[in-house]
Specification:
Length: 196
Amino acid sequence: MPRTGLSPEDARRRAVEIALARIREHGFVKLRLAEVARDMGVSHAALYAHFRDKAALLDAVTESWLCEARARTASICAGSAPAAERIEQWFVARYRIKSARAQSDPEIFYGFNEATAGERPVIRDHMRHLREELTALVAEAGLGGRDEAEMLEEAMSAFLHPELIGPGPRPEREAALRRLVRVVLAGLAAEPGPRR
């Protein structure tokens, strides 16, 4: 980007920071590329070198939040607790992250919800990553593979889907999530027959 003195990566990062601040102040739907460019001290056209449109900038904003969430789930996956315990921790962490964001950063959470509803590529990539993590945990626990991981994810959707997350986290919802994870895992452990 001309006149910023920033590398392309730093310019993108700065644009995302400005977009985050503007979304928090004015709301998700009122974000304008021209205003982000002005705050950066560059032309509107210069910003297009990094973001082809507003949706691409919003994807980058969403991705910045998802990177934080992925770091938390990855650390759980790499932990030393038994795999079944890490599965529970993994779901609880996702619940806490989303419900806390819905409470503390509602406009950013609204954007995440919109990206999810629109099945944006950034969300599809994130969900693929989560499926891979959960599938590995389920396999490590000896409870199956991809099919069982997808079933678990679907069973927990009332706690994790952006449209169903309430501001929180709320202890009673977290307790209910923990109970449901344990029930489903016990059912998988009791299921007869070979697992993939």
